[in-house]
Write a structure and sequence with these properties.
- With 293 residues, this protein is an alpha/beta fold.
- The chain has 2 domains: 93 residues, Conserved hypothetical protein from pyrococcus furiosus pfu- 392566-001, ParB domain; 196 residues, no CATH class.
- 52% of the residues lie in helices and 9% in strands.
- The strands form 2 sheets. Strands 2-4-3-6 form a 4-stranded mixed beta sheet.
- Helix 5 crosses helix 6.
- About 9% of the residues have low confidence.
């Protein structure tokens, strides 16, 4: 017997029943009533069929029987269970705030990068879906920028995919994470993760680069300027507004908050010398790919 509360979805019949297996308007009411009668008869009904993934279940056959059982106050139901193995376990709590989708995307990311094998201590987790795809693009651009510098007569120096994954993790991702930890930035963002902040900081860095014509900020510069202008704590938001007002008064937005004038001029000089931002590199890679195809 399986706890009905752990049956969280259905294979192919999601439009007929709600998340709690209440019948929608398009459900055949006569059939539902027949199942109700059969389940309360002496003969009963055969067990339902379920897939088990992690700690939760999906219905293969038996949606009406679950719906009737729940309506009748049952907490458990007899079932044939087929267990599906997965590298990313699911629990009942994962079916809130899109956690099940995030876990599925995480599994795809690991299958694509093998980061869990290449860097066993890596822990990249997000609170919102759609983020792992962005990381894959970052790795591709990192590989592109490296291979772009390889002399034509030394193709053996080009990065393959696995080398790009480890190089990105070691030299791009982790330096930002270490800066986040050093400045205790996560304390200002309750219920967020280091990976969430990594993407926010990268986005912040790209906006600065595009607006001011800068080379990419160092991890420390990116984290510090981000911390100066963002927070999810009410008190911090008030202090930020004051600092930003003073900054506009004295600097007229010519230099981003959190950078010294010397740092700002150095970043602008590096960009003028040819150092590109992530967005510029991604555009160049896309153009080269289109040309070569």
């Amino acid at each position: 017997f399986v706890p009905i509360a752990k049956i969280v979805g259905s294979v192919g019949r999601y439009q007929d029943f709600t998340r709690t297996f209440l019948p929608r308007t398009n459900v055949n009411q006569e059939r539902w009533a027949r199942v109700d009668t059969a389940m309360n008869s002496l003969e009963g009904v055969p067990p339902i069929e379920l897939f088990k993934i992690g700690d939760v279940y999906f219905v293969r056959d038996g949606n009406h029987r679950i719906s009737v059982a729940r309506a009748n106050g049952s907490t458990h139901i007899e079932a044939y269970v087929t267990e599906v193995k997965t590298d990313v376990p699911l629990t009942i709590d994962d079916f809130t705030r899109d956690q099940w989708l995030i876990k599925a995307e995480h599994a795809d990311f690991l299958a694509e990068t093998h980061l869990n094998e290449l860097r066993p201590d890596a822990d990249i987790s997000f609170t919102e879906p759609g983020r792992y795809e962005i990381l894959l693009r970052h790795i591709e651009v990192h590989r592109y920028l490296h291979n772009e510098q390889i002399p034509l007569d030394q193709p053996h120096l080009a990065m393959d995919w696995e080398q790009a994954v480890t190089s990105w993790y070691d030299t791009v991702y982790m330096p930002v994470i270490k800066a986040i930890r050093e400045y205790h930035i996560l304390d200002h963002f309750p219920e967020r993760t280091e990976a969430d902040l990594y993407l926010w900081i990268v986005y912040h860095r790209e906006r600065l680069a595009q607006h001011y014509g800068l080379a990419p900020l160092s991890p420390e510069e990116a984290v510090f300027t981000f911390a100066e202008t963002h927070s999810e704590l009410p008190l911090e938001r008030g202090l930020q507004a004051i600092r930003q007002g003073l900054h506009r008064t004295f600097w007229d937005d010519e230099v981003p908050l959190g950078l010294t004038e010397e740092e700002f001029l150095a970043l602008r000089a590096r960009h003028a010398a040819g150092e590109v931002s992530l967005a510029e590199a991604e555009e160049r890679r896309a153009s080269d790919t289109q040309t070569s195809s």
